């Protein structure tokens, strides 16, 4: 986004990430980092959702994505620097 004009620039990156919400996002230099979140491949919150736990980096200049970190065994949701762990009792 151009801060002087408010104009947005569309970036077509590969591979595409599934839509998600409640993820932690930041930009460092030319890279956008996305950690975790919750969602599904259709982008519809009313459908069954998946907890994403990977860390992805999108190179904003080269329009490439790299994701890492193994899937967590517990259901986690990252939000504002906190980690919420959902466990079933019993």
Structural class: mainly beta
Q: What proportion of the residues form beta strands (DSSP E)?
A: 35-45%
Question: Which spans of ≥5 residues are poorly predicted at pLDDT below 50?
Answer: none
Backbone CA Rg: 15 Å
Order of the strands making up the biggest sheet:
1-2-3-4
Q: Indicate the mean pLDDT.
A: 79
Beta strands, count: 6
Give the overall silhouette. Answer: globular
Order of helices and strands: EEEEEE
- What is the subunit organization of this protein? single chain
Distance between the termini: 49 Å
Highlighted features:
single chain, 90 residues, mainly beta, four-stranded antiparallel sheet, two-stranded antiparallel ribbon, 6 strands, 0% helix, globular
3D architecture notes:
- By secondary structure, this protein is mostly beta strands.
- It contains no helices and 6 strands.
- The protein has strands spanning 24-28, 31-39, 50-59, 64-68, 75-79, 82-86.
- The termini are far apart.
Layout of secondary structure:
Elements: E1 24-28, E2 31-39, E3 50-59, E4 64-68, E5 75-79, E6 82-86
Antiparallel strand pairs: 1-2, 2-3, 3-4, 5-6
